[in-house]
Amino acid sequence: MAKFLFRLEQVLEQRIKAEEKALLELAKAQQECTKIEKSLAATEDKLQQAFSYAGTISHPSEQMQSFIYVEHLKQTVERQRRLLLRAKEILELRKKEVLDAKKDRMILEKLKEKQFIEYKELEMYIEQKEIDELATLGFARANNS
Question: GO CC terms on record (predicted)?
Fold first, then answer.
């Protein structure tokens, strides 16, 4: 009997590659999210330090510079929070893409397994049929002699 051949093997390979690509994109999104979180935490620390320092300043020009710096840090924190929200949205999207790619791959893998089981059952049936035929021929020869 011919060797087992899964006709959708190339499609399965493409789905495996799509899943791997989706996993890479997910990893990139996780790294970007982590990077933005660290940056946000650092900026918030700077803002706290600036607030602490601003309370100790008595000279008006230094107070003005401190106020401008604090406002700049507040704007930076707000911008980084928006970036973080967007990065988290992208991360969720990438997770969904990974799950979809995994489902697509698993569907084909289950189909391949099912077809392989059917192939093995057919192979066993044919083999049993051949054995039965040989036994019948052997029995017929033994009785004719």
Answer: bacterial-type flagellum; plasma membrane
Pair 37, 113: CB distance under 8 Å: no
CB neighbour class for 37 (10 Å; exposed up to 12, middle 13-18, buried from 19): middle
Q: Please write the tens of the pLDDT for every residue from 12-30.
A: 999 999 999 999 999 999 9
- What's the rounded Cα separation, in Å, for the pair 115 and 10? 15
Banded model confidence at residue 145, pLDDT cuts 50, 70, 90:
low
**What are the CA-CA distances from residue 78 to residues 30, 37, 72, 81, 101 (Å)?**
21, 12, 10, 5, 35
Fold of 9-107: Helix Hairpins (1.10.287)
